Records
---
Amino acid sequence: MTAYRVAQLLHEGKAKRVYGTDQDDLVAVEFKDDATAFNAQKKAQLAGKGALNCRISALIFEHLERCGVPTHYCGVDGSNWMLVRPVQVVPVEVVIRNVAAGSLCRQLPLAAGTALEPPLLDLYYKDDALGDPLLTEARLAMLGLLSADQRQQLERLARQINQHLLALFARCDLQLVDFKIELGFTRDGELVLADEISPDTCRLWDRAVQDSQDRILDKDRFRQDLGGVIDAYGEVLKRVQQHCPEPRVYG
Ligand code: UDP
C-alpha cells in the first residue's frame, strides 16, 4: 500500500461522496451524515451516521473477504473514509429477503415477519428518477444490462453473501431480515461486491426483543420516525465489533 492523495469529486450520492485519488486504481469514499428515505423525499442530518456506517461496512467487507467473497474494499482511513477499487457499478440493486418486510408487504398479501424459505431475491433497476422499479428477467434481458452468465454469477454471489451475513449477524444476536447490495465489474472484468453494507441498507432486528418496533436496529427507525437511529446503529457496530477484528487502515 502506498500513501495517496484525494483528488476530484467523481460522484455525490445520497449517503456518500466518491473521489478520485492520485492513484489510478484507487477511489476514496466519504460516508456522509445525511439520511434520506422514500427516494429522498424525507431528509435529515444525523451526526455520527457516516462514521458508523463506514466502520460497520468495513468490518463486514473484511468479514466477507475472509469468507472468499470478492469486494471493492481496500481499507479505511479516519472515521468516514473508505478506500476502494474503482468498479463499473451494475445499475441493478439486488435485494435478498429472509423475512417479509417493507415494500414486499406493501405489494403482496404477506404479513411482516413471515419467514421466506428459500430467501427471495429481487432485482431493481437503479434509477432514482424512475423510483428504482422491480425488474423481471425479461426486462433485465431487454435492457441488456447483464448476460445470462453474468446474471447467474450475480445471483450466486448475492446468495453466498446472504449465507455469510446470516451467520455473522446470528452470532451478534441480530436477525437479518433483508438487505440490498450493489455489484460492479473491476477493470479486469471481475464481478465484486461494491457500495456499502450497513443499517442503511439492511433490516436488522434484535433477536432478544419481542416488541415489533423496539427490536428495529436499522434505517426503519428513521423511515418510521421511531427515534434512536444513531443509538441503534451504534448497537449494531458494538455487536459486529465483538465478532470481527479491527478494520485495516489504508496507507
Ligand atoms: N434498500 C436500500 N436501498 C434502496 C432500497 C432498499 O438499501 O434504494 C434496502 C432496504 O433498507 C431494505 C431492503 O433493501 O433492507 C429491502 O427494501 P424494500 O424493497 O423493502 O424497500 P423499502 O421498504 O425500504 O421501501
---
Amino acid sequence: MDAPSIIQAFQRAGQGQVFAFYDQLDQAARDRLLCEAAEIDLAEVELLNRTLLAKGTASVNLEGLNPAPYEPLPENGGNGSEWARAKGAGEAALRAGRVAAFVVAGGQGTRLGYDGPKGTFPVTPIKKKPLFQVFAEKIRAAGLRYGKPIHWFIMTSHANHEATEAFFQENKFFGLDSAKVHFFRQGRMPAVDFNGKILLETKGSIAMSPDGHGGSLRALERSGALDLMKRENIDTLSFFQVDNPLIRVIDPAFIGFHLLRGSEMSSKTVTKAYPEEKVGHFCIQNGKLIVVEYSDLPMALQRETDATGKLRYLAGSIAIHALDREFVRRMATGGEGVSLPFHRADKKIPTIDAAGNPVKPEKANGVKFEMFVFDALPFSRQPIVIETRRADDFSPVKNADGIDSPKTSREDQMRQFARWLKLAGTPVETDATGLPKIEIEVSPLFGYDEDSFLDSIGKRSLKREELTHGPLSLE
Ligand code: UTP
C-alpha cells in the first residue's frame, strides 16, 4: 500500500492521531512509521476495542467448571506399564527424527530487569552458563542419545531478534549444527489508550509490543517453520519457555503419551504446592480442556477440597506443551473457524502528549493485547494433561529476587544434581530440603535427565575431596 492509502485507512478507522506528527518527520522516519502502521490489522484493533475495552466486559464464566483429569505419575497412582509404553513410543519418535524443540523467547522480561535477551542470562550454579546454552546442550545431548540431531525453533521479538542471533553466532551455536537452529520473530500489537486510540511512543513510532506467547502459533506458520518441519518429517513440537533451566526439553514419556493418545496438544502439570499458588488451573468446561488463571478462579474454588481432604483444583499449569504441527497450522490460519482470543493487560506505556513531549506514566495509561498459548487447548483434539515432578521440570527465573529468582533456580538445579548423585549411590550431604552442602553442577552433555546421568556417572570416578569440599563439576 502507498503512503496516502495507509494514512487514509487510519483516519477512516478513527486512528488518524498516529500520523499527527508525520509532517515533521524526515523521509526515513516517515517510511519507518508507515512500515509499522502497515503491520497493524485495523479491523482486529477495532474488534479488540469493542470487546475488551468496552465497559462491563464479562468476567470469566465459571458455569459448569470442574477440575480436569490428568495422568498421574506412577508414584501417585499412575499405571507404571502405561508410562513405560509411553516412554518407548517417545524414544521411537525421537529416533525417527519426528520431534523438534521450540522455545518462546520473545518476552520483555521486565520483572527480571536484565538488559538483553532473557536467554542470555547466566543461570547455572558454578559455570554460570546462560539459559540458551543450557537448552542447547540438552538438545545436543538428546540428539546424540537418539542418534538423530534435533531441530530447534527459537521465537524472538522485534526487540531482541538481532541480539539473540548474534549471541548464538558468537558462541558457535554451543556446538549445535547452525542449519538446525531456526530463529523467527513473533508478531506485534499496538498499545491503545483507554479510549482505544493507538498510542505513539515517539513522534515517528507506534507503541508496539510482542503479541504474547500465543503469538507463537501464527509466527510458526508465517515464518515458514511449519513448512520446514513438514519437509523434515517433523510432526511434533516440544514447547517450552525461555526462563526455566530445569525443563526436560526432550522428555520421551511426555512425547510418547502425546502420540499414543492421538493428542493434538498435550500439557504437563505439577500439583499445586499450596492452595493459593499463583499458577493456571487445568479445568474442564462444556467438555473442553481449558486453563483458568489463578486471578480468575475464586479463592473458594482454589481452596476447595474433596471428601478425602485433597484439593479439587490441584493440577497447575507450567507452560510445557507438546504440539502437533498440523494443529498449529489450523490455529494459525483460522481453519475450521478457530483462533486464539486476545487478553487485555493494563500497563504503563511510555508515550507522547499532544505537543509531542515524552510522557512516562506513573500509573497504567493504556492497554496491551496478548495471546496465550494455553488458549489453544479447547480447540485441540484429544488434549491430555500429564503429571510431572516439579523438581524435574520447573524452576523458572522470573524475578530479580524472592520466589522464582536466579537464586531459587540455582538451588533447584543443585538439588536435582544431588538427587541424581544419590540415585547413582553416591553419598552427597544435603540439608532437609535436599540442597547439597557443596556446590554441584552437571553439564547437560554429561547428563540432562536421570537416564543419561546414570549412564555417564558409571564411567566417572569421583574424588573424595570433590564430594566433601566441592565444587563438583561434571562435564
Ligand atoms: P512471561 O509471562 O514470563 O513474560 O513469559 P516476560 O515478558 O518474559 O516477562 P515479564 O512478565 O515482562 O517479566 C513467559 C514466556 O513466554 C515468552 C517469554 O519469553 C517467556 O519464555 N513470551 C512472552 C514470548 O515469547 N512472547 C511474548 O509476547 C510474551
